[in-house]
Q: What sequence folds into this?
């Protein structure tokens, strides 16, 4: 049986993750989508920098690695969070969160379309069903 503190942490993570779309909607009253995305990314970077510093993690000096990280950051963080902010100007935050929850399904479909995923295991189907079952519940 898992530690009860783990369930508490998971619940806190779910609340914080889900609340982000409501907070984006609220922030749009005073900030642009770009400002909101920038703020999220800077705050996240500061937290990670603090954790890395506290644990004595040294940063890589390889320029190529930082270039790859920059491209990944653009397409995995900056662009999506800016687009979420732009979308929430005309779409409800609950719908935005629900659409975001479909990411695993789209990942699986693109995996099949581009040949990265060849077969689907029963546990994958079960995981997707459980995840998508929770979306309408929330």
A:
């Amino acid at each position: 049986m898992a530690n009860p503190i783990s369930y508490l942490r998971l619940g806190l993570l779910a609340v914080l993750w889900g609340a982000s779309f409501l907070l984006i909607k609220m922030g749009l009253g005073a900030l642009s989508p770009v400002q909101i995305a920038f703020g999220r990314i800077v705050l996240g970077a500061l937290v990670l920098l603090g954790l890395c510093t506290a644990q004595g993690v040294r940063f890589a000096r390889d320029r190529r690695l930082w270039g790859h990280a920059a491209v990944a950051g653009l397409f995995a963080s900056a662009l999506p969070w800016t687009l979420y902010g732009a979308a929430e100007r005309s779409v409800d935050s609950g719908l935005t969160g629900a659409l975001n929850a479909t990411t695993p399904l789209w990942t699986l479909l693109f995996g099949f379309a581009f040949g990265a995923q060849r077969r689907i295991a029963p546990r994958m189907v079960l995981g997707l069903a459980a995840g998508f079952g929770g979306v309408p519940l929330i």
The two ends are 25 Å apart (CA to CA). Helices lie at 4-27, 33-55, 63-87, 93-100, 103-113, 122-137. The CA atoms of residues 111 and 117 lie 5 Å apart.
